[in-house]
Amino acid sequence: MARAEAAIGAARYAVSIRTGNHQLVADEPQKLGGADAGPAPYDLLLASLGACTAITLKMYAERKQWPLNQAKVALHYLVENGTGRIERVLTLDGPLDDDQRARLADIAERTPVTLTLKSGLAISTSLS
C-alpha cells in the first residue's frame, strides 16, 4: 500500500517528503512562520482527496463509456465550533444527463480516500 517519509531539518518548517519515486516539499505559510515553500499539511490532505475523487470519477465514467470530458473538484477545509469538515464541489464537463451526473456525485461519496476520512483511521506511533 502507500508509503511516505517526511523529514525536517534546518529550514524552519519546510518538510521534505518522499513517496514512491516522488519528492515534494510541505511548509507552513509565512503568516504561520514558514517560508511557504510548498503546500501546508491540510492543503496536502485536500489535494489527496481531490486527486482520489477526480481519478475515481474518470475511471467510473470510462468504464461506463460516459462522455465525461473533465472533472474538477474544489475543496475547502473549514472548522466551525471546534469541528472540522470538508466542503467538496464537483464540476463535471461533458454532455452527461442528469442521472449520470447524480451517479457520479454519488460515486464521489465512496472514493477510497473519502471512505478513509469518513471512517476515521487508527494511527500508531513508535520510536525507531
Automatic annotation (TrEMBL):
Signal peptide: none annotated. It holds the Pfam family OsmC. InterPro entries: KH_dom-like_a/b, OsmC/Ohr_fam, OsmC/Ohrsf. Transmembrane segments: none annotated. PANTHER family: OSMC-LIKE PROTEIN, PROTEIN INVOLVED IN RIMO-MEDIATED BETA-METHYLTHIOLATION OF RIBOSOMAL PROTEIN S12 YCAO. This is OsmC family protein.
